[in-house]
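Example 3.
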Amino acid sequence: MDLHEKLHQVCKLFRINDEFLGYETIQMGNVNRTYKVNFRLADGSPKSFLVQNVNTYAFRNPIALMDNIDQVTEHIRSKKPGQVALHFHHTADRKTYVIDGDNFWRMTNYVRSITYNTVKDPDILRNAGKAFGEFQMQLADFDIAQLYETIPNFHNTRKRYETFLTSVRENKAGRAEEVREEIEYLLSVQDLACKLTDLNAEGKLPLRVTHNDTKINNVLFHPEDNSAMVVIDLDTVMPGLIGHDFGDAIRFAANFVEEDCPDTEKAGVDLEVFRVFAEGFLSQTASTLTETEVETLALSCFVLTAELATRFLADYLDGDLYFNTKYPGHNLVRARCQIALAKDMLRKMPEMEKIVRECIAAAV
Ligand code: GN1
Ligand code: MG
């Protein structure tokens, strides 16, 4: 069956019985596959939804994952009545998914919006920071015990390094020799990169409900006024550290270039972007932070960047099994870009720390 037919069939199982017009592939995310499906309603007006094919190699227990995000989206929806919110559709037997063979499908409302991969506009960046900070706060009263860990040890940097070392040792795709330099760099910064994980293990950083994948393209902005409407991609909402959300957001949004830019000399952290994003994020969260969280917030950006570099490089060494790649060597390009960014962050760490303090002083 072709994809057109397949998507139509999935939509019907989600009880959408209007006239199916077709689908568009949405370039979104490196793990799941996303389609916008378009319908014509009985009155002739158009209506769209998003259908995703969940990557079950990454998410080993997608049913538990759907239980998480159904609870989380409904929790958030109840806090913003009358406003745009994410909502998962159900099948006739009240399931939020359709399984067919190896495919795991889900469906949400489609929100007319714009997203950004790269943006320099300070107002948009501040709005993004605010949206992720607000997201944190909306879930502050969500019971952590209700959440299944969709990817165990997702931001456990010690475990990420172990996995990385296994990939180096096994050298499945025979590529280790060509990336010696990158391997050595990542090993040389291991202890610093594992700082958040270690502090958490020592009980010095509190667990919160975090998003864990705070790329700015996971915020949907209003097409006219650029206000942030919803935070999407909730697959990795799990117990985590505040630095995971702040650090990953900066890693992505404050880089001068996109995360897979082959021109590594251009990679680096833009302190102006850092400042406005931090302003927005901290305007929501500052009053709840512990001193250790504040102290490690700037460092968290380096941590998340180095961690992702180990993940991209490990996947390159394994033969590109986890991340969707667009061309051979894509994972290596990504890893190199993250390494260049991590190095620049270390150079600018004192300034980043100073900005965090300034934003906190302005917020509380
Ligand atoms: C993956 O699929 P996407 O783009 O939302 C990954 C993140 C990485 C990101 C890097 C579940 O996110 O952890 O930071 O790629 N998500 C998962 O682009 O592994
Ligand atoms: Mg994601």
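The beta strands are 19-26, 33-40, 46-53, 98-100, 103-109, 208-210, 219-221, 228-231, 238-240. The chain has two domains: 3-109, 122-363.
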